[in-house]
Amino acid sequence: MRRREFITLLGGAAAIAMLQPLAARAQQPAMPVIGFLNARSPVDTAHLLPKFHRGLAEYGFVDRHNVLVEFRWAEGQYERLPALAAEIARRPVDIIVAAGGEPAALAAKAATSTIPIVFAIGGDPVKAGLVASYSRPGGNATGINILTRSLEAKRIGLLRELVPRASMIGLLMNPGMPAADSYLADAQEAARSAGLQLMILRAGADQEIDAAFETIARQRVPALAIVADPFFDTRRTKLVALAAQYAVPTMYQFREFVTSGGLMSYGADVPDAYRQIAVYTGRILKGAKPADLPVLQPTKFEFVINLKTAKALGLTFPPGLLAIADEVIE
Fold this sequence. Notes:
alpha/beta; Rossmann fold; 2 domains; 7-stranded mixed β-sheet; 13 helices; 12 strands; elongated
């Protein structure tokens, strides 16, 4: 065999050897993609994501190994959600996880009627038009209702016990929340039942939050309840700092506010909710249909108190409140 022919054959064999792994990889199934749409921010949600990844792992899915999670964050700016949801739907993705309340879930639902959606919201998904019923969702969406709206009355009642002599408390709400009017109606009914008047303070931007606390100080409002809202979750540090600055006892929706220095909170176990929506995501990636997966509701709620903050405010918690607290931070 001539030298030139030998080299040519050798080169052809090498080329075939190089192409074989590529061909093998091309035959492998494409890695499924999860579009993760969140109304909150990556900073205030950082402590929740490990639970989400743990839930995926329960069904054998590990990000960047055999599944790809594409994150999109609205950072409390709800007007960004429709474009983000449309971008995810065009990607395309195998499933959309819509977390951070109704704004993200509604944006995802508007973007697609075919891609499966798993949501985490705080209100009734039937009334929101996300599902046909809790037991048989019937469409392309299912998930969990963490009942933040239903717990407004409980929060106001606990705040009433802390300041029993108060005839009025403040209620901070975001008018840009899709369910704002319904939340307000529930809070007003709860206040009437507790014998309280509400001073309604509306804030959908940072400067409006500042103005609301200035009003609280000027009007000497004795206590404040903050309506559950992803927008406020993204401003957790700011809200806790302002409550301390103006020395106003404040009730929050989640324990993360209290661990950040807030006074007290009552709400669902949100980290576990993120695990549960990941479990549903894994089940759907394995072949389950959203229409057949019932909407979940939490069974565990946490009443958390920060005694260090109470001391700074000159407050003493009644023994009855301390007795029913699930966690007391000292």
